């Protein structure tokens, strides 16, 4: 037994045919005393929220990365130990046996071991605030059976009940509400939309989109140069006009001049950018998802990454903005721009 890990074994709990599996880090003092997972204050909080989204504790499977409590409840004390290795192996066996339709990773370390997701720097056990609310494909690197399952990432309930995390109650609830959609099938199924990147039909598409009630607009830039303009009138398609085909700029400029109501995410940047560097005017700037978020959820972030996690079924994708710098493939930037447009439109229609 490792010196930084307690010897008491805390088993998992729940039906062997559960459709939902919750995975935490390790048990605490109450769990150790009762030899049951999620029975302390954090577990009681989780149980209440499981009930709020329509389920009972007895319906779900509850387990942890490690079946042993680390000293001081510090997960770092488990890193590199046999207790963690054994716990991960046991977790894989539990996933194989239960075969849940969705696994809920509660916290940064369960997220890392079940999906491989991290912050932008690739630091293990970090980045959960970016990824929470996302449903992603599991990774089999650390927990082999997870590779065949989808994983919903959320914050650890132990964080939510602390003063520093108390304000995240509605965010945690919003994450768990996704279970109603995800529990129906083990398949990972994101919404689909058609991508138009510098198509020959640019003029036709722009004219058609400008007949709609709303037009969502988003730009990407290279410093003082415009990289692309993305527009959409629905969550089912998007048009990206890039600098590689500047003959399309006239139709981007034309769209901004039409009286169709326009939606931006922090439009003060986009509108002033195209005016300052290109002399383009924008007519009927009618809605802004950033400004709406400041009014609807004033205490929370207003960036598109956070709003995406609250309003849409798409996973976190904002790091894709930098992908072209690593690969040299600009098509990733055009696809990123289209995702921004579709997500932004989705959010605006819900706000």
Automatic annotation (TrEMBL):
Domain Uracil-DNA glycosylase-like span(s) in chain numbering: 11-177
Keyword match Lipid metabolism: no
GO MF annotations in UniProt: 4 iron, 4 sulfur cluster binding; deaminated base DNA N-glycosylase activity; metal ion binding; nucleic acid binding
GO process annotations (BP): DNA repair
Pfam families: UDG
Tagged with keyword Chloroplast: no
Keywords, in A-Z order: 4Fe-4S, DNA damage, DNA repair, Hydrolase, Iron, Iron-sulfur, Metal-binding
CDD domains: UDG-F4_TTUDGA_SPO1dp_like
Protein name: Uracil-DNA glycosylase-like domain-containing protein
Lineage, broadest ranks: unclassified sequences, metagenomes, ecological metagenomes
